[in-house]
Amino acid sequence: MDRRLENVKRVLVFTAHADDCEFFCGGIVAALARMGAEITEVIATDNGRGSFELDQASLVTRSREIEAAAAASIVGKKHVEFLGFPDGFLDDTPKNELRRIFMAWIRKIRPDCVISFDPFASGETHPDHIRVAQAAVEAVGFAHLPLFHPEQAAEGLLPHLTPISVFFSKSHDTDDTIIDISDVIDVKIAAILAHESQMRLTMTEQRMFLESTARHPDLVPLFDVDNPGPAIDTIVRKWALNAAEGLPFMYGEGCRVETVDAAFDGFTLPGT
Description:
alpha/beta
């Protein structure tokens, strides 16, 4: 584990959808949980549109009550909270409302570390991911300041400074840290597969993409809607192997780690 994360005791993860944590940072979260950290995840949307097979109400119930709970148990999260905003429509939420809610959760959980999407990474096209990224980084930046939402103090939600932030992304172009997840790669894969409805969506989408161009016909059978395990195992291990290339461990997960005192790294007082 990166030395900056070795003493983390409370972690707050902000995501947009039920399976975001497991896909993007499941290895890091599982490793922190194994070290004894208490993990809370706040999911912004109701996860209500990611299916070709289920109606919206059934998908919301299944992804919340069954799949997210199963994944949390596998990874080692203490609590998962769905805020319930409409999936795919976070842009319709008033600009600072999500930030206010995230600040309240920071002041409630009082984390040592917040994990979320990287607002500075390129290649992110999902509007919900973009909104969560911006709200999370702003909430971390303002939650320690008492004049931002002072009404929260009346609810016992006092200002709190989060010293460490970990950011993940789809493109990985802002990564500055690779975390060793070799001991928890199987946990990450099992937790991803716990999101059964999302796996059926993913397998169906990938088959559609491959069949639409017919450039990789040999890969189509890998994406089996009724048996997503081989595809997920293959893809996740490939990603993790690539991340750890040249490093003294087999499987890695990339991220950007930011500490509030980073500006003082290498700083020395005159005469010392």
